[in-house]
Amino acid sequence: MSNEDATATAPTTSMITEPASIREYNRGPITKYYEPPSSCAATMSFDGNMYYGWGDAGILDTACYPMGTLKKEEIEPASTWDLYYYSPAVCPGGWDTITKFTSGVGGVDTLTSIALGPGTSAALCCPSDYVYHTFGHVCTSMITQGQSLNYVIPSTDIGGTLHIGNVTTSIYPSASHAFANGVIVMWQSTDVPLLRAATINPNPSTTAPSGPPTALPSASNPTPTAPTNTSSPAPTASAQGLTTAAKIGIGVSIPLALLLGLAFGWFLFRRRRPPPAYVESSGNRLEKYAHVVPVHEAYSEPAEIGGNDNRGGKGSVRMEQEHQRHELQ
């Protein structure tokens, strides 16, 4: 390929700066204490990789992520998990502030970003024991050799009905990683008094012991180093055994090189995820807000954004892609 051809086919980065377009990615505020139930981390889903709260096969437990002001059906399209944020908001209880963004917040495809306006802070929150994967809002956690994990392997029958499957317990034969969709929060200094209430657990005796209430994101939070290998070796089934479908599903090879493993694991994360189905679970749920809290974003010259989807106005900046979502749904 000539240099001219390489230049012509190179991907370009799109920065969204028009306030109205930016607001379309806002899922709403987190101004009341919210902490996902411990079951979100205790039972994962498996489809080539392990996923927190959602998975490749399209399961989303709506108790595992804050809903903001959205309804279940509004968070259903796979495209809504490519680029999103909550504002004004703080991290969910038991989650950690992993990294801060300075100029913009990128999507999973890393080619589309939301610009940050003057005075607007943004941070990525990940579940406890997860670190930043360096791609968009993706978090990752180490699975150690010999670690026991509970998980489900979802499947779809010939009629298109999704079956979550039974919980399987397996032992990992070698070290690997699990994935999770992080929660991106945005706020301004004027929001701090409002947000302090979201850091206080009103029922500490009824909440799983996942650590102290989340503090407001600050610049003092460290940015952990991303892992170098993201593929998942097939876990070894416990005495209860695996179904035939499970045995086929977990036949994932270990990459020959760390870089190849990173690329392959990320390819699975981006490309193999179909539109999600939803299951309700017990646990703490974020109440729907009766009012809309002012949101602070960019106020610069608008960029040209063409096309429309079912949420309006994001056709050319939101890349069409199948999204894995446990979005680990």
In short:
It comes from Bimuria novae-zelandiae CBS 107.79. The chain has a domain at 12-143 and 178-222 and 272-279. The protein has 329 residues and is α+β, with helices and mostly antiparallel strands.
SSE layout and pairings?
Blueprint: H1 3-9, E1 14-16, H2 19-23, H3 39-42, E2 43-46, E3 50-51, E4 59-61, E5 95-101, E6 104-106, E7 112-115, E8 121-127, E9 131-132, E10 138-143, E11 148-152, E12 155-156, E13 162-163, E14 168-171, E15 176-181, E16 183-187, H4 192-195, E17 236-237, H5 244-249, H6 258-271, E18 277-279
Parallel strand pairs: 1-7, 2-11, 3-15, 4-18
Antiparallel strand pairs: 2-3, 5-8, 6-7, 8-16, 9-10, 10-15, 11-14, 12-13, 14-17
Fold and architecture overview:
This is LPXTG-domain-containing protein. The protein has 329 residues and is of the alpha+beta class. The protein has a domain of 185 residues. 12% of the residues lie in helices and 21% in strands. The protein has six helices and 18 strands. It has an eight-stranded mixed β-sheet. A three-stranded mixed β-sheet has the order 1-7-6. The radius of gyration is 20 Å and the shape is globular. The two termini are 39 Å apart. The N terminus and C terminus are likely disordered.
